[in-house]
């Protein structure tokens, strides 16, 4: 029989009030609070707290406090990832972030989702879908990434966008819902 955590990570309906999951979220919130309470002169302590929160993170990663997440351990950070102020990652499923990716302030990354059927939703069960973000991506301030999306490498997501579907590589995409506006790269008009 699968544990609630195994169900959660498999994208199945699971009970978020499970004791193990409550404990892991509590741990992550304590680490995030400690990180958020540090000052700019406490770089080593910030690095230590983030290493404990994520388990591993790429070289040169920088996160401006405040930062919030559900578990931390379901987030994989490439090298030189940057998060501006007040970002939130609901990492109920895996969140994979490539190298040299930047997040503007107030970016929200949501893997958590709930049943659309009201009766099923009333049960309190939920599920999640992983999010993957490629290398050299820039997510503009206030953008929201919905469960299950993939954003291709070298893509730019405009500020305030709501990403509900996959976005390919090498494009500028924006809007609500987010859609491709134009290609980027050597052959594209900048």
UniProtKB/TrEMBL annotation:
Reply yes or no: does the keyword Acyltransferase apply: yes
Superkingdom of origin: Bacteria
InterPro entries xrefs? Hexapep, Hexapep_transf_CS, Hexapeptide_acetyltransf, Mac_dom, Trimer_LpxA-like_sf
Q: Which SUPFAM superfamilies match?
A: Trimeric LpxA-like enzymes
Q: Where is the Maltose/galactoside acetyltransferase domain?
A: 5-59
Keywords of the record: Acyltransferase, Repeat, Transferase
Q: What GO CC terms are in its UniProt record?
A: cytosol
- Which Pfam family, giving just one, matches this sequence? Mac
Q: Which PROSITE patterns match?
A: HEXAPEP_TRANSFERASES
Q: Name one GO molecular function term.
A: O-acetyltransferase activity
* Family affiliation: Belongs to the transferase hexapeptide repeat family.
Please report the name of this protein according to its UniProt entry.
Answer: Sugar O-acetyltransferase
Which organism's genome codes for this protein?
A: Billgrantia tianxiuensis
Taxonomic lineage of this organism?
Answer: Bacteria, Pseudomonadati, Pseudomonadota, Gammaproteobacteria, Oceanospirillales
